[in-house]
Amino acid sequence: MAEIKTIGILTSGGDAPGMNAAIRAVTRSAIFNGLKVKGIYRGYKGLITDEIVDFRTQNVSNIIQMGGTILKTARCKEFTTPEGRQLAYEVMRRHEIDALVVIGGDGSLTGARIFANEFNFPIVGLPGTIDNDLFGTDSTIGYDTALNTIMECVDKIRDTATSHERLFFIEVMGRDAGFLALNGAIASGAEAAIIPEISTQVDQLAELIENGFRKSKNSSIVLVAESPVTGGAMALAERVKNEYPSYDVRVSILGHLQRGGSPTAYDRILASRMGAAAIDAIMDDQRNVMIGVRNDEIVYVPFTRAIKEEKHVNPRLLDTLRRLSI
Q1: Annotated catalytic residue 98
Q2: Domain co-membership, 208 together with 94
């Protein structure tokens, strides 16, 4: 295999707090190891439109505390076509980039895997998504920060829910995964979490109302994952109005609030460790792997497993929530 002298780095898909810490770690670890670094702006789109600049140590100074991504991110239709990927490859060769570090979620790593296979090109992925839905890592970059944001928002909503004796449905992100809703519910002392993983097995709303909302409580908060499977908070509120009209229902959709903000210490450390490990992997001739952390140890997860295998919520957590919300 040809010697690697220059690496490219990009962020793709939805932004996540901690991405900047990862960019910083990748850049500085690469420079420490004698490699050149090129920052690619706007994800895969920037590869095609040639938005590529030399990155030095000072490019990543004072960014560890910032949310979002200094490299920007964009969805890119062209990259889903063979012609678009060919173009991206030619631009990369022109810049003499020998390996790529991609920071992003499920879709971003899927794109990386296809590209790596088509051009036999070394790519290492970092799991940057608040949803925590990538297999092979206990936590993804941004998840802990999003969880803390949800907790703070729910704490504030609880003040008003209690004052008015209302039932609040709070919708959180996680299209296919209930990690934010479930752990957010435990952290904020919510009564329940309605998540896509179990919606198909039980009517969660009926179970909730029939089991619970006892009159001894003057307010109730339920976290809902924004999934087509759960129907989202609005649809559930509509059902309550129709089926259980005695409840005064309100909906709060946290939306993009959850993505923003300065990353927590945990996310900064996680992103820093993963960024450094990405360079170790490249120096070690590893390719087509995502860096993960399991039981606090760095692991290398093949792209195919990270993307295709399902990461399950821990059923014990559901049980914990159920027991603590009586």
Answers
A1: no
A2: no
